[in-house]
Design a protein that fits this description.
With 117 residues, this protein is an alpha+beta fold. It is built from four helices and three strands; from the N terminus they run βββαααα. β1 and β2 form a beta hairpin.
Length: 117
C-alpha cells in the first residue's frame, strides 16, 4: 500500500430518523444522519409505512376501489340475465359462429411500374 494517499478510516456514529444509532467504520469525517434503517424499514419490520407527499397513494387506492366496483357490477349483470355457465356457453357459441363465417376474398395486387420493368 502506498503511504499518504488513502483516506483515514475511523469509527462513525450513524443516526436514523427513528432514533436508532449505529457505529460503523467509514472514511467520512463527521457523523452521518439517515432517514431509514433496519429498525424502521418495512421489509424488516413487516409494517407498511407510506410516505405520500403528492397524493399518489390516495389516487391509486381510489382507482382500485372504482375498478372493484365495476367488476362487481359486471358480475351482477351476468347473474341477473343468465347463470355463469349459460353465459360462458353462449360466448363460446358466438365465437364458434364468428370463426366459421366466410372471409371476403382479397383483391389481387396490381403491379407497380417498377415491378413491371
Amino acid at each position: 500500500m502506498k503511504k499518504d494517499i488513502h483516506p483515514d478510516y475511523q469509527d462513525i456514529k450513524f443516526t436514523c430518523a427513528c432514533g436508532a444509532e449505529f457505529t460503523a467504520g467509514s472514511t467520512i469525517k463527521e457523523n452521518f444522519k439517515t432517514e431509514i434503517c433496519s429498525n424502521c424499514h418495512p421489509f424488516y419490520t413487516g409494517k407498511q409505512k407510506l410516505v405520500d407527499t403528492s397524493g399518489r397513494v390516495d389516487k391509486f387506492m381510489e382507482k382500485m376501489k372504482r375498478a372493484q366496483e365495476m367488476g362487481e357490477k359486471k358480475v351482477k349483470k351476468v347473474e341477473k340475465g343468465k347463470s355463469k355457465k349459460a353465459a360462458k356457453e353462449s360466448a363460446k357459441e358466438k365465437s364458434a359462429k364468428e370463426s366459421t363465417k366466410e372471409k371476403p376474398e382479397k383483391k389481387p395486387k396490381t403491379k407497380t411500374k417498377k415491378e413491371e420493368k
